[in-house]
Amino acid sequence: MTDYEVSRSAVLPCDIGRVHALIDDFREWPAWSPWEELDPDMSRTYSGADAGLGARYAWSGNKRAGAGAMEIIESRPDRIEVALEFLKPFKSRSTVSFDLATVADGTQVIWTHAGSLGRLVSLVSKVYPMEKAIAPDMEKGLAKLAAVAASSGDTD
Predict the structure, then answer these.
(1) How many other β-carbons are positioned within 10 Å of the β-carbon of residue 106?
(2) Domain at 2-152, CATH homologous superfamily
(3) Can you give the pTM of this predicted structure?
(4) What is the mean pLDDT of each run of 10 residues along the chain (156 residues)?
């Protein structure tokens, strides 16, 4: 197994509470998650808590979107941690975290994706590293999160 960690950060010009609310509720993710647009017809199932600790989200989509599930395993005002499990196109488990901090220009968000790669994906990652595979999507997601947060919430 090969371990990986990819992080991206951005300062969003909005209140930390608004950013937290958009991340802490999986029903908000279609508005900003870069992977949601891989399959507009993707099926989504929400269970557990409505938001925060214990909230669960499962999806099943086309070959590009695959299938999997997420659960919020930690929810504090300054941090949200999500357990992520892919079922298709390959099985894997990882942790996704969002660290939030109030800064002069708004809210700093540090988005980290970390896990271990199985043998097959580990081989592929030697040619196409996880950094290259997911960092551009994370950057796109942070930009979309900033736009959604600024347009629909407090901009203190």
Answers:
(1) 21
(2) START domain (3.30.530.20)
(3) 0.87
(4) 82 95 96 86 94 96 86 98 86 91 97 76 51 82 94 58
